[in-house]
Amino acid sequence: MSGRAWIEVDGGRRQITVDRFDRTLAGILADSGLPLNTRCNQRGLCRGCHVIAENHTPGDLLACQHHLAEGDVLRITIPPRSLLSHPPSVVSDFQTGVPTGSDPIFTGAGSLAIAVDIGTTTVATILCKLADGNVLARASALNAQVSRGDNVLTRIQLCQDDKSHIARLRDDFWVSTFHPLLRFLLKDSGADINDVAGIVVSGNTTMLHLACGVDPTPLGTVPFAPTFLDRREFSGEEFGLPNAARVIFLPGISAYVGADISSGAACCGVRYGDRPQMLVDVGTNGEILLCSSDGHLACATAAGPAFEGCGLLCGMRAAMGVVSKISMSADPFRVTFDTIGGPYPSPHGITGSAYIDFLAEGRRTGLLNANGRFDRAIAASHPEYFRQEENGLSFLLAPDQPDLRIGEVDVAMLLQAKAAIAAGIETLLALRNLTPAGIGRVFLAGGFGLNLSIPNAIACGLLPGFHEDQVTAVGNTSLGGAYLSIIDKSIAAEMDDLRAETIELNLDPGFEDRFLDHLSLPPQ
Question: What is the model's pTM?
Answer without folding.
Answer: 0.81
